[in-house]
Amino acid sequence: MSKPTVAILGSSADRSKFGNKSLRAHQQAGWEVFPVNPRGGEIEGLTAYESIEDVPVDNLNRVSMYLPPAVGIKLLDKIAAKGCEELWLNPGSESPELFNRAVELNLNPIAACSIVDLGLRPSDFPDA
Question: What sections of the protein cross the membrane (predicted)?
């Protein structure tokens, strides 16, 4: 059986940021994680993709967003083209406009913390 897949939009190499804590939480929970950061490179030993379009998997199980709403809303069409079962809008990434557009695109938006959904807490992942 294959691992569930997640793209983390707003992944960061900074271990104090939630985009990094989410990456580590999903890894710990057994997910195949695809960090997405426009700088590319490597985050926590994983290839960081510059765009959701570059992620080598279609129809992801989850996309977890850690971006400001003004940035995230511009990515919704690309997320819809890639495909996902759930779009997690973590605290600070959601807005009514973004949420409603995600509904229009059938992205199954969930405004909640994806780390908590895993049965974990952000504090479980130290900054250092």
Answer: none
Domain of 41, CATH number, reads: 3.40.50.720
- The length of the chain in residues reads 128
User: Residue written as tokens 């057994």?
Assistant: 30
Report whether pLDDT(80) > 90.
yes
pLDDT digits (tens, 9 = 90+) for 105-128: 999 999 999 999 999 999 999 997
Residues 92/65, Cβ–Cβ less than 8 Å: no
Are the C-beta atoms of residues 74 and 87 closer than 8 Å to each other? Answer: no
- Cα 97 from Cα 60, distance rounded (Å): 23
The total number of structural domains in the chain stands at: 1
Strands (E), the chain: 5-9, 32-36, 42-43, 46-47, 60-65, 84-89, 109-111
Tokens of 111: 């405004």
35 contacts: CB under 8 Å, gap ≥ 6: 7, 8, 11, 19, 23, 43, 44, 46, 47, 48, 49
- Structural domain range at position 56: 5-124
